[in-house]
Amino acid sequence: MSYSPEELKGIAIAGRVSSVLSILGSFTIIGAFSVSRHFRSPIHRIIFFNSFYNLFDSVATMISTSGPVAGDTSSLCRFQGFALQMFPVADVLWTFAMALDTYLVVFYHFDTQSLRKLEVKYIGAITTLSFIPAFVFLFIHGREKGPIYGDQTIWCSVSRNWMILRIIFYYAPVWLVIVIVLILYCLIGIEITRVRDEFKLSDDDRIALTSGNSANSVTTTTTEANPRVKPGFTPESTMTSDTTEQITFQHLPTSRNTTTRYQTPKQRRVSLRQYIIMPSLFFLAMLATWIAPTINRISEFAHHKHGSYSLLLSVSTLGSLRGFWNGVIFITIGMKGWKRRASGRKIALEQTTNGRG
């Protein structure tokens, strides 16, 4: 299918505008992370690392139709093809890392230090898995099929002559990871619902998680009886947040006083916004950017021709917005959490001041 110069120009403009927005989004993430300690949670750190990958992705989409115009064997086309093979895949893998962190927090109660120890492994694994196929493709050139990276109208990527490689090393692993992430979030949602029903959300959007399922431990001590107190069980202490829950009962027989303490599993409180809402929104944003490209590739595979102009325009626009959506979610959710905590500190300070007065 051939496209008019005006249509190709429209595709290029849409892709470059989206790319500029994504570059601004990536720099916003880097800047916010660098200047504010508020944006330093494990999930924020993963988004920060991913923003550098998004920058290279945005540079590649910024090239737009200039890659195909330069020719399949040009350095510009080869660089664009390499970047668009590697960095979108890396973006999906970083989204998986966020889901995995959330899963480890909810089910295995990883703390901040434990999650940070995984970051080097994430960087190594994600870079390796996304880099190797993209790099190897640079050196493959068939006699009849030509180079792997070639003209795909809106930019250079794996050409239709090598469609099977595009499916095996690009769309298949991407959608496999998306399905795995979706399963993880379903499991997390079920667990959060159970925990929410059991402990309820606190006022600062944090949710309590038990650190174990072991049976309650019981400690019994004996003291002198107080004849003025009637026999029975009287609660003396309750759970405090971020501490071990201890509930003390007094059993008062006629001559002796037995104090029994039931120690329940330790409680940890994690931010619902940072560990649940924000990673979930990143997943949804990533999913939105992959729908149009996947439909386009399926159409090409089935009909052996490029999709319609409107479909290519959607691919160029949505496929270039990864960094933009990441930046919007990063700042929006982060600022809401910061305002909520600031408001909580202000109220606590006012209550302390009034109490002293």
Automatic annotation (TrEMBL):
GO biological process per UniProt: adenylate cyclase-activating G protein-coupled receptor signaling pathway; cell surface receptor signaling pathway
Region (Disordered) residue spans: 217-240
Cell compartments where the protein resides: Membrane
Pfam families according to UniProt: 7tm_1
Transmembrane regions: 12-35, 47-66, 86-110, 122-140, 168-190, 275-292, 312-335
Topology class, membrane: Multi-pass membrane protein
Keywords noted in UniProt: Membrane, Transmembrane, Transmembrane helix
Principal subcellular localisation of the protein: membrane
Segments forming domain G-protein coupled receptors family 1 profile: 25-330
PROSITE patterns: G_PROTEIN_RECEP_F1_2 (PS50262), G_PROTEIN_RECEP_F2_4 (PS50261)
Gene3D superfamilies linked to this entry: Rhodopsin 7-helix transmembrane proteins
GO cellular component, one term: plasma membrane
GO molecular function per UniProt: G protein-coupled receptor activity
Domain G-protein coupled receptors family 2 profile span(s) in chain numbering: 8-334
Protein name (database record): G-protein coupled receptors family 2 profile 2 domain-containing protein
Lineage, opening ranks: Eukaryota, Fungi, Dikarya, Ascomycota, Pezizomycotina
